[in-house]
User: Which sequence fits this backbone?
């Protein structure tokens, strides 16, 4: 069985790391390069860097910042936000990213997933899926930083992106995002068990027990969090030590 991964996420706006709740109420959380290097020292398994307003503002990911971060770290590094074409993906990989995360552009044009996978390999393509549970109990896919609902159901879209060549899914529950009330375990397990690629769970981590619940109750391969790491609420070494004490296989 693959060991579970702990992944800090750096949401970037105007060159700064930020964090909100339920995708709104954005607050500053620090310098992305300082945070990235700290997380590597602390034992983060990977990093995710998302330029959260690039798609909404119809601009490209900040390639220069990607390049500066890539020079400072030595763990796998996923970059997303504003990647709308194979050319955009190539620019980010050339700047030092190990993987590309696509979200809104993949919903608009699913062939983009295949294009990137065909050139760089499935392992380089992470499809970020932002989902929200509606009043009817179904989970739907949202794009443009959680602004636009699509009539895509979460399970269908997860299976579709795998068919198109995605090597990994970054699954964020908008209902849980920033709430520190725990991951959306039921939908995470449904999606993890209906695809054959790794699923990174995101949204809701607030304490060590939330990661323990994630890894003991679902087959998700990684837990991603932001504010609890940015604000020093749970140091990564402490998190990994406590998870190991629960016999959870952690990198």
Assistant:
């Amino acid at each position: 069985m693959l060991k579970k991964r702990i992944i800090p996420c750096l949401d970037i706006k105007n060159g700064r790391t930020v964090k909100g709740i339920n995708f709104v109420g954005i607050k500053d959380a620090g310098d992305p390069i300082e945070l990235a290097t700290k997380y590597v020292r602390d034992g983060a398994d990977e990093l995710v860097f998302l330029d959260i307003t690039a798609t909404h503002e119809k601009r490209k990911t900040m390639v220069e910042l990607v390049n500066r971060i890539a020079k400072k770290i030595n763990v796998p590094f996923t970059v997303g936000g504003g990647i709308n074409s194979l050319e955009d993906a190539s620019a980010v990989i050339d700047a030092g990213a190990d993987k590309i995360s696509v979200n809104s552009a993949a919903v608009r044009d699913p062939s983009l997933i295949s294009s990137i996978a065909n050139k760089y390999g499935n392992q380089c393509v992470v499809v970020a899926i932002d989902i929200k549970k509606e009043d009817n109990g179904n989970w739907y896919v949202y794009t443009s930083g959680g602004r636009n609902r699509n009539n895509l159901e979460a399970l269908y879209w997860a299976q579709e992106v795998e068919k198109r060549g995605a090597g990994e899914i970054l699954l964020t529950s908008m209902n849980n995002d920033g709430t520190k009330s725990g991951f959306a375990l039921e939908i995470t397990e449904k999606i993890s068990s209906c695809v054959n690629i790794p699923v990174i769970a995101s949204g809701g981590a607030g304490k060590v027990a939330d990661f323990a619940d994630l890894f003991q109750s679902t087959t998700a391969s990684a837990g991603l969090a932001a504010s609890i790491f940015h604000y020093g609420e749970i140091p990564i070494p402490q998190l990994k030590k406590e998870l190991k004490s629960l016999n959870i296989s952690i990198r």
